[in-house]
Amino acid sequence: MNKVTTILPARDIMNLEKILQSSNTKETHQKLREVIEILLEIPQPTTRDVSLAKMKIAKKHNLKKIPSNSELISCLKPNEKEKLLPILRRKITRIISGVTVVAVMTKPWPCPQKQPCAYCPGGPPYGVPQSYTGHEPATMRGLQSSFDPYLQVKNRIQQLQAIGHVVDKVELIIMGGTFPSTPIEYQETFIKGCLDSITEQKSSSLELAKANAETSRIRNAGISVETRPDWARPDHVDHMLRMGVTRVELGVQNIHDDIYALVNRGHTVQDIVEATRRLKDAGLEVAYHLMPGLPGSNFQRDLKAFKKIFTDANFKPDMIKIYPCLVLKGTKVYELWKNGEYKPYTNEEAARLITEVKKLVPPWIRIM
Question: Which of 23, 49, 264, 307 has its CA 20 to 30 A from that of 276?
Answer without folding.
Answer: 264
